[in-house]
Amino acid sequence: MSRPEYKIKSTNYNDISLRLARKIFGIEHLHYGFFTKGIKRDIQHVPQAQEAYVKNLLKYIPRGVKSIFDVGCGTGGIAEELVKKRYNVACVAPDPYLTNLAAEKTKGRAQVFTDLYENLDAEPTPGSFDLVLMAESCQYVNPERGWEQHGRFLKDKGYVLIADFFKIRPLDRDDLSKSGHDLDRFLSVADESGFKLLKKIDITRETAPSMDIYQGIITQYVFPIAEAIFEFISRRYPLIYRFMSMLFKEKIIKLHARYSNQSAAIFTQYKGYFILLFQKK
Ligand SMILES: C[S@@+](CC[C@H](N)C(=O)[O-])C[C@H]1O[C@@H](n2cnc3c(N)ncnc32)[C@H](O)[C@@H]1O
Asked: What's the CATH class of domain 10-208+266-280?
């Protein structure tokens, strides 16, 4: 029986906003910052906090690991670090803009695949990796299929290292961001799929300041720019404006409400950011 093909869902178009962040703010990684005490909590210091995130995460790679599959590699910033540390690296992401960057950054020293992780099959070689790394990409991958894929690509006793945020309590309001898997459910799927949890480190306190910074960018830059564009269209092309309002009004109101509710305080109420290390049983 043939496997279902997974298709890129709208959430994967986050890549478009990620590209913008890179162009406008010079951000090279696409994950949250890890704000330790010495790092100022503003947009200028996000690159420094993102480097701290990588440094902290790579500490959890177990000894003896030689080959790493970086799933959801973004711009390839982490893969570049791994290659420098002489690991054998492969990476995958569904967006060609990002995988081209990853190929450039790793200078031909990593295998790079452009697809959803869920769809990979014969390549890279199944059973060839000591560790699968998911740095803030786990939330985009179907959990059941994800664990099946980890089983396929890892060697016996191989590891899965995840850094991501998860829902830790039910979302009891409509205007909250739904992103992130439910933690308890995710951990039980891992267990049922044959993976043992070795480490669970809570880094919510260090990563949550990113939310206040992103919320600031959205309310101070993105919303005002979008409003100015709509204002321009309404004056210059009133018919087009009316047509667009009819189609998108509800959606825009929802987006506005959701993106106005992304502060660190709200984030920490509903989500937790964890580093999780698993081993194939
Ligand atoms: C928030 S970014 C993190 C990127 C990178 N790991 C980092 O730490 O900067 C999420 C990444 O996951 C990728 N992604 C989303 N859905 C995916 C899927 N189903 N399979 C593989 N990668 C996926 C996106 O293209 C993006 O590169």
From this structure: alpha beta
